[in-house]
Amino acid sequence: MPLVTPDGRYIVVRGRLWRATNPSLPEPERQRLTEALMDARRAVKAARAAADPDAEDRAHHAVDAAKQALGERGPVWWTDGAPDLNRKMARNTAYADWFASVGG
């Protein structure tokens, strides 16, 4: 299980913040979108293996659509005006003290 920031907005992978899925999504919707994301990622792999750039482009668009619907890309899902720190190193953000305290 990945490390999650105290506010639940990000998971931390190798010290980098990645926006978490919108927690207000109903579970069936989250599951459906996660399955769509996994299908799209498999389609990217298959298109690469087949050397089909058009299929790969479509698959990348499907990945992006699923990630936006999950809240991992696009407009942030929180409403307090906090900035999006997606892909930033935790040690260089407002999470630095927390990250250091958990052994980051």
Describe what you observe in this structure.
With 104 residues, this protein is mostly helical. It has two domains: 1-23 and 82-103, no CATH class; 26-70. Helix content is 45%, strand content 10%. It has three helices and three strands, in the order E-E-E-H-H-H. It has helices spanning 27-49, 53-70, 96-101; strands at residues 3-4, 10-13, 16-19. Strands 1-2-3 form a three-stranded antiparallel sheet, with no helix packed on it. A hairpin with a 2-residue loop joins strand 2 and strand 3 (16-19). The protein is globular. It starts with a strand and ends with a helix.
Give the helix tally: 3
Q: How do the helices and strands follow one another from N- to C-terminus?
A: EEEHHH
Count of DSSP strands: 3
Number of domains: 2
- Amount of beta strand: 5-15%
**CA-based shape:** globular
Structural class: mainly alpha
Poorly predicted runs: none
Question: Looking across the biggest beta sheet, what order are the strands in?
Answer: 1-2-3
Task: Write down the Rg.
Answer: 16 Å
Distance linking N and C termini = 15 Å
Helix content: 40-55%
Average of per-residue pLDDT values: 96
Give the oligomer, counting copies of the same chain as homo and different chains as hetero.
single chain
